[in-house]
Design a protein that fits this description.
about 200 residues; alpha/beta; Rossmann fold; 5-stranded parallel beta sheet; 6 helices; elongated
């Protein structure tokens, strides 16, 4: 009996590991594809902010979203992200202020300021889009993040185009660790665990 249980556990573990590696390869493929085209809104996913100023990663995402907006691929930009422990600022509001300072009209910016995780922010983004009768978006984030974000929004019935921010470091063990981490997060989401 123990042997059967042991073999079953080993087979299940190997199956899960193979699935995560397969998804990591899909993430790696998606990370280099820019699918940007006409859409209802550009969604810029939040990243760290420092005392009201975007971190270098967040600034790169915002600049890429700004470029897409200036190319007239969407009439609005939606910034996401909660406080992350900062009592004064949220990532979404910092993104909005940055875009306004770069001549985006405030009425063209939508803010999701409460999301404390990717899953939470994307649920809020989908609800905002639904209420505003928007059905398509260009998602801007780091390349390793795009696959999971697309799948989560597509699950909610939206048409999603990925557009990774430029200037990400490519290849190497560190990058593959990010792919594997996102694959694990995606696998957990598939079974109902949001992180």
């Amino acid at each position: 009996m123990r042997r059967i249980v042991w073999r079953t556990l080993v087979a299940a573990s190997v199956g899960v590991a193979a699935y995560v590696v397969f998804i990591a390869f899909r993430i790696e493929q998606q990370s280099a594809i820019d699918e940007s085209r006409l859409a209802d809104v550009i969604v810029v996913l939040g990243a760290a902010e420092y005392n009201g100023r975007p971190s270098p990663v967040y600034r790169a995402r915002l600049n890429h979203g700004l470029d897409l907006y200036r190319r007239k691929l969407a009439p609005r930009i939606l910034t996401t992200g909660g406080a992350g422990g900062d009592p004064l600022f949220t990532e979404g509001e910092v993104g909005r202020a940055y875009l306004v300072n770069h001549n985006v009209p405030s009425e063209a910016i939508i803010v999701e300021p409460v999301g404390e995780s990717t899953a939470y922010s994307l649920a809020a983004v989908a609800e905002i889009m639904r209420r505003m009768d928007m059905t398509s978006c260009i998602v801007v984030s780091d390349g390793y993040h795009i696959y999971r974000v697309k799948k989560m929004l597509e699950f909610r019935g939206l048409t999603v185009y990925g557009s990774p921010r430029p200037g990400e470091p490519g290849g190497g063990l560190r990058q593959w660790m990010l792919y594997l981490r996102q694959a694990g997060a995606y696998a957990l989401w598939r079974v109902g665990i949001n992180i």
